[in-house]
Amino acid sequence: MAERNTVGPEYLHTLGLTPKFGRELTTQDRTRTTTAALINENLAQAMWPGEMPVGRTLLVGGDPQPVEVVGVAPNAFFSGFRREERPYFIFLPRRSDARTGGETTFYIRYSGPLDMLGPAIGGALAEVDSRAPIVYMRTMETQLAEITSIARVMTTMLSLFAAASLLIAILGQYAVLAFIMKRRTRDFGVRMALGASAKQILGSVIREGLRLTALGLVIGSALSLVSGRALRSVLFGVTSTDPLTYGGVVVVLACASLVACWIPGWRASRVDPMEALREE
């Protein structure tokens, strides 16, 4: 299954793209007897893995219509952000004798503010057909912002939840370690009375806390790999198993854990051995 769209000449150039192989559709393709077609890289790899797709023939549609592949377009979100990981696209030339019905979208490459270009676009369209209305006119940035709005809202919410979870984890680890270190006050006093330095006490507390962190990171990473598959549809520009993301998370959690461990460890290292021994 591939999504099909009819486009005009220099469609890729207008979008700022260059064919990976072959050429893009031109004005001559609108009148030639054999139908030319552009396909994206995903479809080319699915149909002819490891082979040159240019010059090959595809059968398109329920009533199979033979088309010749003249070029391969780079993979891009041609119809918005999709749920499929590897969407397939085929682009056919809009025939010069085709009847246009419904809504047609024109992509115009320009420089300068849109409000200055708008009247010129309206005048050019009126010269061709004065009855054709302009439904709306907007920039590509506006279009992208609209189709990614849901993803951006979800990203913001998940980021807030993640920040709150990180804060709760830091406070929780600090509370647990502070409680454990308080109960071990006598132990620290004995060790310091026998010659242990404050640096050694601090190091032992931090090592104990980081061991808990390492165990949590292993369990959390395993759960993230499993749950990440369910979130693939809302991930853009990154995979559910991106090593850079996981590495960054590990570093952030390790630093947060270090802060949570350092405060109880610093307090433990400041214990007066005589007062600690007298507590019990």
Major sheet attributes: 6 strands, mixed
Task: Summarize the amount of helix as a percent range.
Answer: 40-55%
Return the string of H and E elements: EHEEHEEEHHHHHHH
Number of domains: 2
Mean pLDDT, as a whole number?
81
Outline, from the CA principal axes?
Answer: elongated
Helix and strand content put the structural class at alpha/beta
Radius of gyration, CA atoms, in whole angstroms: 31 Å
Runs with pLDDT <50, length 5+? none
List the defining traits of the structure above:
9 helices; 280 residues; elongated; alpha/beta; 6 strands; 6-stranded mixed beta sheet
List the helices and strands and how they pair.
Blueprint: E1 3-7, H1 11-14, E2 21-22, E3 35-40, H2 41-47, E4 57-60, E5 65-73, E6 89-93, H3 114-128, H4 140-147, H5 149-183, H6 185-193, H7 198-228, H8 243-269, H9 273-278
Describe this structure in words.
With 280 residues, this protein is of the alpha/beta class. It folds into 2 domains: 3-142, no CATH class; 149-278, no CATH class. Helix content is 51%, strand content 11%. The protein is built from 9 helices and 6 strands, in the order E-H-E-E-H-E-E-E-H-H-H-H-H-H-H. Strands 1, 2, 3, 4, 5 and 6 form a 6-stranded mixed sheet that branches. Strand 4 and strand 5 form a beta hairpin. Helix 5 (149-183) runs parallel beside helix 8 and helix 7 (198-228) packs antiparallel against helix 8. The model has no long low-confidence stretch (mean pLDDT 81).
